[in-house]
Amino acid sequence: MFKKILLLIMLINTIFAQIKNIEIRGLKNVQESNISSLIDIKVGDTPSQKEISEQIKSLYSTGRFKDIKIKVEDDILIINVIEWPVINNITVSGNHAIEDKVLDNIKASLNLKPGYPYNLKVVQAFTGGLRSEYEAQGYLNVSITKNIVAKEEKVNLEIEVKEGPLTTYESIKFSGNKVFSVLKIRSVLNVATTNLLSYFLGTNVYSERKLDDSINQLKEFYYNNGYLNFEVVEKSVKLNEKKTRAALTMRIYEGKPFILKKISFSGPIQPNKTILKRAKHLEGQQFSKTKMNDLMNDYRDYLGDLGYPYANIQDGLEMNQAEHTLSFTIKSDPKKMYTIRHISIRGNTRTQTNFLRNFLYQSEGQRYSKHELDDSRARLMNLGFLDSVHYTLQPVPTYHDKVDVVYDVKERENVNSIVGQVGYGGGQGIVVGANLNFKNFFGTGNSVSLSGEHNKTTDSISFTHFDPFYLSSGLTRATKLYYTHVNSDSISATDYKSNNAGLGMTIGIPASKVDHINFGGNYEYMKLNDAPTLSSNVRSFIANHGENFNNTSARIGWSRSAYTDRLRYNQNVSVDVSFPLLRNDITYYAMDYSLRYHLKLMQFKNDNTIALEFKPHFAY
To answer: Global pTM?
Structure first.
């Protein structure tokens, strides 16, 4: 026994002669330069058997070889390798429920792509992950087959998916519920037997993952209503032989609700009066996990507004099972106060960065404020040409009291449009028109619109321009120019001709972060041309007022524009008054009201959204 151990030690510590050259044999698809950089043994070394064994392990770890042998002959280190075949192409067919983009992400995570070595274990991991994804979407009968075509050390991988039918709920039964009805529990669980609405919502589809998520939602529902002893006692799902129908049976225990007896705060910075008032209001009510989390988040945000971005908020819970009461102590550790060192914006490839920076309430050198950063995000989203805006904080390594803010923006595609139209209208003949609308003109953030129309009786052209940040104080400016020519000679109607040209400007003064008070003026020149077929009313008007008119008007109004993740709305109220400033002026007044209200109602499967949009417009 001793001799065997001694012989093993001698083999492990065998020292080969000095290496004069290194040869790598068997390479076909892998470049020798890529492997040479991974060889630790160099010319001139005298490697041991242990070092050679470690070198073999290192080369195996690349995943490119299925066999490696190293030997030393005549002072030459010879590395013999057998490569795994290289993937030439991968095709997946039959996938309808799962998009190619999702498949590409799975393949990329496993390095399963052309040019990489073929490995059966990796392929099996991919098909297994694909099967799990299908089962999570309710396709329990999915069939996935793979066909491997090898040719000249290269592999074509063909994967065929047969999705099969969805597994849907045939019956859903609950027991043990005394406080909440079965209908309410079903709505919380977001499960249902097949009906018209479930087809759109996907609530009739069974999968183990979706059911587990739904049960967690049910627990949250009971916790938010004070039933902290709630539990699912038994859950049973029975599938039919073909796995197309599922019968769900669930038995639950509700228990008794807990009353929130006392809320207290502990820390160097006490909350403001609003938070204290909300805490007092929650005392004596049934406990709600969501309301308590909201209270703690508001406390955290309050500390954030005071310059503490990394404040730590913890809750100390005391539960009295006998009396079914709870006492909460909210503990705060503000940590350090921070100031903003630098603010950067990235992701904008078309919009000028300086323009976007104009809409940030927080600036460099100021004390950190979460509220100001959130309002800045909402203000950027309200511009209308950004799809998403998010910000992150990055601590500055060389400073312990400074932080950098990075805004990541995603610009909306196709915000600019060029539209042409050709049509035919009774009395107007052929109608030809064009509209050029640029919501983000050359990345300046300004809105520019140019439109024109020609038909049998009318020629018109108009130009509008809106600058949402006209001055550094936040003023907005809207300008418009227009011209219209009317000639009704060619139709059987009152014969008259007119030429109208005008220009106007409106300045918006910020009254709050979402409100503007608008002041503006408009000038319009109008010329009416007499004709033999004029009606008596038109002829009388010309006799009293003449053919040439210079109309001047003043406008005052109020507008509100706000954005949240669920709601975007714009509201405008204005009054126009025309007054005799120039000769042949016409006196009049007009009122205008418009509202655009866009509310996201619910999110469907496949990220489809139902939203309510309400756009009334009244004028007098």
So the answer is: 0.68
